[in-house]
Amino acid sequence: MPIETKNSIKNKILERVENTAAFSKENLKIKDKRIATCMIPNMYCEEELVEAFRKEAKDKKWLYTTLMNEILRERYGKINNESETK
Predict the structure, then answer these.
(1) Angle 21-33/6-18 helices, nearest 10 degrees?
(2) CB-neighbour burial class of residue 67 (10 A; exposed 0-12, middle 13-18, buried 19+)
(3) Distance CA 81, CA 11 (A)
(4) DSSP readout, 29-83?
């Protein structure tokens, strides 16, 4: 019996998982909800800024992700719109 490498075993397992209905269903959910997303790595910020951020999210009853998306859209969405019109 031939000895299989770790990569070949890993690939076989991934193929089996990817062919399941549950895996496909989860992928469809993710694709529907998140068309194009990117993750910002964890970072250290000034304590006062973090507290203000958390307070604003709580006041608006938003998730931190929602508030951060709004802040980034407000600040950097304008730059994208301006560059596209030029």
Answers:
(1) 80
(2) middle
(3) 43
(4) HHHHH-SS---PPP----HHHHHHHHHHHHHHT--HHHHHHHHHHHHHHHHHHHH
| Sequence-distant (≥ 6) Cβ neighbours of residue 40 within 8 angstroms | 68
Write out residues in the chain with pLDDT < 70, as ranges: 1-2, 4, 6, 14-37, 79-86
Place of tokens 């000034």: 46
Tell me, what amino acid is at 70? E
Torsion sign (Cα): 67, 68, 74, 77: negative
Q: Tell me the one-letter amino acid at 67.
A: L
Nearest to 37 by CA among 75, 74, 65: 65
Instruction: Dig out the tokens for 11 from the structure.
Output: 């690939």
Task: State if pTM tops 0.85.
Answer: no
